[in-house]
Amino acid sequence: MMDLILNDNGVSFKELEQYIFKTMCMKAVLSTKAILEEYDEFLRESRDKKRYRHKGLRKTTIKTIYGEVEYNRAIYECKGEDGLKSYVYLLDENIGLDSIGLVSMNLAEHIVSNATELSYRASAKNISEMTGQTISAMGAWNVIQSLGEKVCEDEKRLVEAHKEGLIQGENITPVLFEEMDGVVLSMQRTGTKGKKVKKEMKVSLAYEGWEEIGKDRFGLVGKVITAGFSDSKEFQACREAAIASEYNLDETHLRFLNGDSAPWIRNTVDKDTVFQLDPYHKNQKIKARIPYKKAVSDIHYYLGMCDIEGLFYYLEIYKNSLSDDAEIEGAERLIAYFERNRDGLLPYQARGLQIPENPKGLLQRNMGTIENHVWSVIAKRMKNNHTSWSKRGGNNLAKILAKKCSGKLNEVFEKIYIPKAVPVTEEELEIKIPLRELKKRVGKGYEYSHKGHLVGLDMSKKGDGMLLKSLAGL
Asked: Coil, strand or helix: which one is 205?
């Protein structure tokens, strides 16, 4: 082996590493196939034969992080309490075969981790290079769509349960901070004049306060993030249900909402919600409408002093001092914008409200983090990178991105596997394999049905040298 590595035409360490990795993956595939089929045979022999009628074997394949595992498992016909026939795979039931289609959950997690940061094409390339499984960009897309659909279904069930008053979260906070904004994304279809259609992706954020995570660094606590292409009514229902599932709103005395003047945001304000105009959008409007630095500074002074009447008085004087029509129009539009949002010009701390302290000792700081979250949740992955989306595809990815930023992506994976078995008790169906029996059958010393060996580095096995050279391209 050393002679092979050291000669002029020998393999490099990179090639050796790749070969050993492929060999280990192949061994893992064969071992998995043997274990699954052995366990399926055990279940077949120990099942309740009166209840489960064997109907033959079915071949299936599951993609794993070390390659595709193709194996056979038995299918059974059984009757439920209602007398209707159904078909089940006892192997899937007993091992809790959690997968997304034909993709194992471990591999799906790797795909999602990549696809929420990179394009589907780049994600597929990464997975194919770093695991024993080769996937395509469409394969990565399919996994995201399957997961996104699951999240959508879960949201619909949550909304219905909330409407019926069945949802109440465990977290208790006297004050709930909420922020909303949208980001416009390019769609795949074109309009009547051949221009790309654009659609707003709505994003909402709710949290109970801030905690210090470093010197002059603060993080939000208890984030609940919702995103989607839904219409206003549907999105608000989904947002409220998501918040209610996390927080006990009966114990929440104040809700502060930070957002811009978009109707879908303003229409959510009710008597129990205090609206605050988002600082970023407020400053953006001032900068866009007022061309003079002195006037901009004066406007910020009145806002900082919380003198709203003085602000409008100043703006009228400023407008009357102008002679340029465009500048006058800019001032009028800013006055109209401020007038529409007069109730939200002051920050929530300046409203004279009795704001209870957080029982967990969390801080209550200035709101206005939604713009950053819109970027980190949606825009970073879905905007300004030459991408366009279908409504379904973009919506499903947004659901996954929102779950990831909320720190709840693991919950999505945990809910994927839903047993397709007829519900029976262990006493009725005594097929649960004891741990000691499993060790005896597939543990140490078990001889798999397919035998093989690792390539000997000293070329002790006949043919190893030729095999290694072949894989190295020599």
From this structure: strand
Contact 221, 392 (CB under 8 A): no
Residue-wise DSSP of 60-107: EEEEETTEEEEEEEEEEEEE-TTS-EEEE-HHHHHHT--EETTEEHHH
Q: Quick one: pLDDT band at residue 416, thresholds 50, 70, 90?
A: low
User: Do the beta carbons of residue 331 and residue 350 sit within 8 Å?
Assistant: no
Asked whether residue 449 is assigned to any structural domain, the reply reads yes
Determine, yes or no, domain membership for 137.
no
Q: CB under 8 Å to 297, separation ≥6 — which residues?
A: none
Plot region of 290 (φ>0 → left; ψ -120 to 50 → alpha; else → beta)? beta
Q: Which of 390, 408, 426 is the last residue of a domain?
A: 408
Shared domain check, 174 and 72: no
Examine the domain organization and report whether 211 and 271 are in the same domain: yes
Is 432 contained in some domain?
yes
**In the 8-state DSSP scheme, what is residue 355?**
-
Residues 472, 15 contacting (CB under 8 angstroms): yes
Same structural domain, 392 and 423: no
Angle at 195 between CA 192 and CA 200, to 5 degrees: 100
Residue 140 within a domain: no
- DSSP class of residue 356? P
Residues 424, 361: one domain? no
Question: For residue range 220-246, what is the model confidence (pLDDT) as tens digits?
Answer: 999 999 999 999 999 999 999 999 999
Are 312 and 298 in contact, with CB atoms under 8 Å apart?
A: no
Kindly state the percentage of the chain with pLDDT values over 70.
84
Q: Between the CA of residue 196 and those of 187, 199, 203, 382, 384, what are the distances in Å?
A: 7, 10, 22, 15, 14
pLDDT digits (tens, 9 = 90+) for 27-53: 999 999 999 999 999 999 999 888 899
Q: Which domain covers residue 44, as residue numbers?
A: 2-97+417-471
Nearest Cα neighbor of 280 from 180, 175, 385 is: 180
**Tell me, what DSSP letter sits at residue 114?**
H
At 173 the pLDDT is 95
Q: pLDDT tier at 218 (50, 70, 90 boundaries)?
A: very high
Regarding whether 338 and 385 lie in a shared domain, the answer is yes
Alpha helices per DSSP H over 257-369 = 263-266, 279-289, 293-304, 308-320, 325-340
